[in-house]
Automatic annotation (TrEMBL):
<protein>
    <submittedName>
        <fullName>Uncharacterized protein</fullName>
    </submittedName>
</protein>
């Protein structure tokens, strides 16, 4: 049984791009569920899957996040990873889909959970906006010679990996991925021709996947006049290779195998090599070695 991938909204569960991708469990919101039932819901996930990785946007309401941490604390379980995502709504949904793909592979829970931070760096998430005048979530610099964010014309914004804002009809292109990707896009009230045409050509995407607009997108981008998009690696074999090539270590706190600098389940940081205790007798052997001063 694959490791459970859970989310806080049905909008984060995109259609799979292949027949082998498992679905994700949509947790019930606090306003529609009492605390004992929430405990039972996640406890059942752990019973069936062993481990649960919960991905939620950083914009998730505080009561919902507090509920997640309270459930984890009450269950006294290190088998629940709570992972916030700062990506825009569609970018987060694409990240969830990649984790769903990898959950069917042979990765350990610690490696799969820690891979979320790695994968997020390779998702190019942005939007075409009718106006960037009210944009406040993306720290972008305004184009030289213009004191406004083009209130009278469309602009294209990249939230990550590197924030960028350009005129949609200008000569400057959004910095795109230097590897093969598929472009998932959510048409809003704007026409999607710029995204499926000019942007797709500039980024040399290998496939286009239209999906419904996430409900949170209009709030995140501060406008209902947009087309949201996210370019990411669609091939699970490439994702598997990327994650498996990372150095793996054992978490010094919970013992799970992980990649990166922090355990996704207990949040313990990786101890630097210079601070790790040496094996018993190492110092003595060095002192007694021939030529030791």
């Amino acid at each position: 049984m694959p490791i459970a991938i859970a989310v806080t909204s049905a909008d984060l569960v995109l259609p799979p791009t292949d027949q082998h991708t498992p679905s994700a469990h949509v947790l019930t919101a606090p306003e529609r569920q009492d605390f004992p039932t929430a405990l039972a819901e996640i406890s059942e996930l752990l019973t069936r899957h062993g481990y649960a990785i919960v991905l939620y946007p950083t914009t998730t309401p505080r009561p919902y996040v507090q509920r997640l941490h309270a459930v984890r604390a009450m269950l006294e379980s290190d088998r629940i990873a709570l992972l916030p995502s700062a990506l825009p709504p569609l970018g987060t949904a694409v990240l969830v889909r990649q984790l769903r793909q990898l959950s069917a592979c042979d990765f350990s829970p610690g490696v799969l959970g820690a891979s979320a931070r790695l994968l997020a760096h390779y998702i190019y998430a942005g939007a075409l906006l009718a106006s960037g005048a009210r944009l406040h979530r993306v720290p972008v610099s305004l184009p030289a010679g213009n004191g406004t964010r083009h209130p009278g014309g469309q602009c294209a914004v990249l939230a990550g990996p590197t924030p960028q804002l350009v005129r949609a009809d200008g000569d400057v292109a959004l910095a795109g991925p230097q590897f093969s990707t598929a472009l998932t896009y959510a048409p809003g009230t704007l026409g999607s021709e710029w995204v499926t045409g000019r942007l797709a050509r500039q980024w040399q995407v290998q496939g286009l996947h239209p999906v419904p607009m996430p409900a949170e997108s209009t709030t995140w981008w501060a406008t209902a006049k947009l087309v949201e998009f996210a370019a990411a690696i669609p091939d699970v074999s490439l994702l598997y290779q990327m994650v498996s090539q990372m150095r793996q270590e054992a978490c010094h706190w919970c013992g799970l195998t992980l990649i990166g600098d922090r355990c996704a389940f207990c949040s313990a940081p990786v101890v630097p090599l210079e601070r790790r205790p040496r094996a018993i007798g190492t110092a003595r052997r060095r002192a007694l070695a021939p030529g030791a001063g």
